[in-house]
């Protein structure tokens, strides 16, 4: 058992070889990647004293800054809020998030302006912990600093959502703003990982994925600690969909608990939610196996069963009869499932996939003037559905994943 108070420092990890400049093995892919594609890699293997810029000083950005600062990396934490920057550098405390925590002296807060090109180019790692809806505007600006695509820093994204208006996953937002090579080199961390537990060094595991194997390996090596395990993979579309979708089902589970339903009902929502997520992912062109991993069932289980989840909390309070407006204005932090439910509804309709729980969450959030009544009706309508086969995956011809991979130049 790990002692939560023990400081684990990662001073001399054996550097990973850069043997693979190509994509992961075809075997693990739903949409096979032809091996002839050469994949872009970042400038170097981040070593024990890497320079890391973390964009977004909310709960998760601050938590990951602490995780890396704690293992002796030189961490810069960007916030767009000047008082937060000043307070952090004076007291090593975040004014708004993880209030109890004393942060590592290896972290310097920067902002409120986005760091300039000279600063960005000195970094070994850029980590984006900005909510999905605001990523595009920030990437557009930062892309001006990434002018030498042959010398990219290691790029890491941790947000879990679907962009409103475009229904884009983060991979597509990166491709649109920074180009296909940056998107192919990007890595994604997802999985059951509450910020407040990571800073207390509670044992945690996540999925780390990229289209470029060497990049996923670098990110895994950077984050790996005795209390933090990384499992690598090659299905960024599946992992991103899983991370976004589980937030919608967490709202459903919270709503059920808020209405006063008990354990059977929550277990039903988690299990049927997983079946829906897997169907949506498969029709989209992701691997169904991805939904059995940490970013899938792992994170779904976590957020559907804990009041530490903001998405669960939104659902719970809706079930108790509060209005969405009142909840959002007092939550104090982002609940990505609220905006993501919108994109999910459109994706389901486009794919022709049956996902009745996700549809009901959408109805309660966006067509439910009287939220308590609408939430009750949602449960009744789900229970009134005609009997159906339990597990049936839709066929896939690649779906939107193929279009996205075409955009990245990964398939013809
Ligand atoms: N908190 C957690 O335990 C985890 C969060 N995530 C994901 O990480 C992402 C960030 O979540 P949190 O840090 O928890 O959210 P948060 O609500 O705690 O913080 C959000 C941060 O984004 C910043 N922000 C807001 N608007 C912005 C804009 N227009 N431009 C730049 N920055 C802006 C805020 O100032 C704040 O620093 C979300 O997608 C979330 O789903 C993923 C895993 C765990
Ligand atoms: O994704 C999370 C943990 O893995 C955090 O969930 P919430 O955004 O619902 O708090």
Automatic annotation (TrEMBL):
Which reactions does this protein catalyse?
A: sn-glycerol 3-phosphate + NAD(+) = dihydroxyacetone phosphate + NADH + H(+)
Catalytic residues, chain numbering:
246 (proton acceptor)
- A GO MF label: glycerol-3-phosphate dehydrogenase (NAD+) activity
Under which EC number(s) is this enzyme classified?
1.1.1.8
> What Pfam families does the database record attribute to this sequence?
NAD_Gly3P_dh_C (PF07479), NAD_Gly3P_dh_N (PF01210)
User: In the record, which residues are listed under signal peptide?
Assistant: none
Provide the alphabetized UniProt keywords.
NAD, Oxidoreductase
Sorted alphabetically, the Gene Ontology cellular component annotations on this record are:
cytosol
Stretches of Basic residues bias are at 1-12
Question: Quick check: keyword Transmembrane in the entry?
Answer: no
Domain Glycerol-3-phosphate dehydrogenase NAD-dependent C-terminal stretches:
235-371
Disordered, as annotated region: 1-23
Q: InterPro entries recorded for this chain? A: 6-PGluconate_DH-like_C_sf (IPR008927), 6PGD_dom2 (IPR013328), G3P_DH_NAD-dep (IPR006168), G3P_DH_NAD-dep_C (IPR006109), G3P_DH_NAD-dep_N (IPR011128), NAD(P)-bd_dom_sf (IPR036291)
- Enzyme class, broadest EC rank: oxidoreductase
Listed binding positions for substrate are 160, 310-311
In the record, the note on similarity to other proteins reads: Belongs to the NAD-dependent glycerol-3-phosphate dehydrogenase family.
Q: What name is this protein filed under?
A: Glycerol-3-phosphate dehydrogenase [NAD(+)]
- Identify the species of origin: Mycena pura
Q: What is the lineage of its organism?
A: Eukaryota, Fungi, Dikarya, Basidiomycota, Agaricomycotina
């Amino acid at each position: 058992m790990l002692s939560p108070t023990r400081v684990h420092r990662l001073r001399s990890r054996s550097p990973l070889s850069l043997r693979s400049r190509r994509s992961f093995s075809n075997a693990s892919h739903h949409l096979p990647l032809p091996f002839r594609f050469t994949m872009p890699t970042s400038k170097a293997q981040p070593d024990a004293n890497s320079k890391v810029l973390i964009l977004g000083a909310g709960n998760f950005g601050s938590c990951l800054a602490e995780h890396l600062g704690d293992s002796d990396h030189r961490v810069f934490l960007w916030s767009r809020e000047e008082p937060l920057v000043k307070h952090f550098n004076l007291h090593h405390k975040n004014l708004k998030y993880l209030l109890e925590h004393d942060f590592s002296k290896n972290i310097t807060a920067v902002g409120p302006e986005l760091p300039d090109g000279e600063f960005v180019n000195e970094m070994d790692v850029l980590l984006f912990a900005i909510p999905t809806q605001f990523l595009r505007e920030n990437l557009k600006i930062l892309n001006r600093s990434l002018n030498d695509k042959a010398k990219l820093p290691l790029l890491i994204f941790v947000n879990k959502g679907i962009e409103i208006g475009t229904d884009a996953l983060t991979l597509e937002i990166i491709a649109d703003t920074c180009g296909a090579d940056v998107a192919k080199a990007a890595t994604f961390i997802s999985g059951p990982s509450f910020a407040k537990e990571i800073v207390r060094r509670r044992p945690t595991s996540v999925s780390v994925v990229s289209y470029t194997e060497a990049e996923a390996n670098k990110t895994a090596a950077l984050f790996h600690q005795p209390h933090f395990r990384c499992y690598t993979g090659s299905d960024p579309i599946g992992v991103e969909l899983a991370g976004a979708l589980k937030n919608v089902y967490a709202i459903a589970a919270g709503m059920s608990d808020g209405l006063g339903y008990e354990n059977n009902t929550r277990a039903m929502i988690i299990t049927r939610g997983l079946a829906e997520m897997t169907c949506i992912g498969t029709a989209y062109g992701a691997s169904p196996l991805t939904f059995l991993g940490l970013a899938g069932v792992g994170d779904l289980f976590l957020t559907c069963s804990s009041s530490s989840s903001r998405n669960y909390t939104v659902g719970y309070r809706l079930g108790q009869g509060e209005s969405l407006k009142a909840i959002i204005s007092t939550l104090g932090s982002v609940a990505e499932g609220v905006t993501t439910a919108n994109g999910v509804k459109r994706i389901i309709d486009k794919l022709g996939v049956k996902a009745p729980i996700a549809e009901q969450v959408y109805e309660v959030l966006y067509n439910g003037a009287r939220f308590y009544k609408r939430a009750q009706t949602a449960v009744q309508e789900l229970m009134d559905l005609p009997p159906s086969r339990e597990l049936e995956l839709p066929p896939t011809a690649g779906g939107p994943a193929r279009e996205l991979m075409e955009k990245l130049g990964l398939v013809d």
